[in-house]
Amino acid sequence: MKSTHHSHRAGKPRAVRSVAAVVAASAMLLTGCGSGESGPPTLTWYINPDDGGQDVLAQQCSDASGGKYKIQTSLLPRDASSQREQLARRLAAGDTSMDIMSLDPPFVPELAEPGFLAKPPADVASATTKDTLEGPLQGATWNGELVAVPFWANTQLLWYRESAAKAAGLDMSKPVTWDQVIKAAKSQDKYLGVQGVRGEAMSV
Question: Family assignment (predicted)?
């Protein structure tokens, strides 16, 4: 998942709005707009080193703007903890080069609470949350406000023992909640296990 941090400078909200509208499908953090240089602004998108197609998307959006702006990418470290550290330090220092960020879902609350993430414009929020699953949408929300734009997420699989679910009265042919699964496991004296890495795992 990936919203905006508040730039403390007045500055070019139209550029941010138009970029957000074009890059509507991204898990990004849209931030205060680029530099004060003359000519079309260049926006920097801090991206994760994965196969999310962010470089291609940045180029497509730049081309689609018709020369109104350019999006360049800057690669974040490979592991999630180092990504978080770099982003948090830059934001806390007031780094104005941070126009767009890709952000893992567990870090949304941490960066939203001190006010680093701004509410996306209404048109962007409307376009990017249409037909979005409830889980990713909740992960992009803080204190009841959308602060990030859901882009893409890992696929998670739940494996379960049919006999234990049946004995607990859990109907797995229908949607179930984590509360139901936890209650069922306790009633059958079973354990739940989550496979994941630090910085993600159960929070994702």
Answer: Belongs to the bacterial solute-binding protein 1 family.
Instruction: Provide the mean pLDDT of the chain.
Output: 78
Contact 3, 32 (CB under 8 A): no
At 204, the pLDDT band (50, 70, 90 cuts) reads low
Domains of the chain, CATH where assigned: 13-146 (3.40.190.10), 162-203 (no CATH)
Count how many Cα atoms sit within 13 Å of the Cα of residue 118 in the half-sphere of its side chain: 21
- Return the closest-CA partner of residue 194 out of 160, 162, 165: 160
The mean pLDDT of 69-89, rounded to a whole number, is 91
Q: Where are the alpha helices (DSSP H) in the chain?
A: 13-22, 54-64, 80-92, 108-112, 122-129, 134-139, 162-167, 178-187
Question: What angle in degrees, to the nearest 10, is found between the helix axes of 13-22 and 122-129?
Answer: 10
Model confidence band, residue 182 (pLDDT cutoffs 50, 70, 90): very high
Rounded alpha-carbon distances, angstroms, from residue 168 to 7, 68, 140, 182: 52, 59, 33, 11
The DSSP code sequence of 33-73 is: ---S-SSS-EEEEEE-SSSS-HHHHHHHHHHHTTTS-EEEE
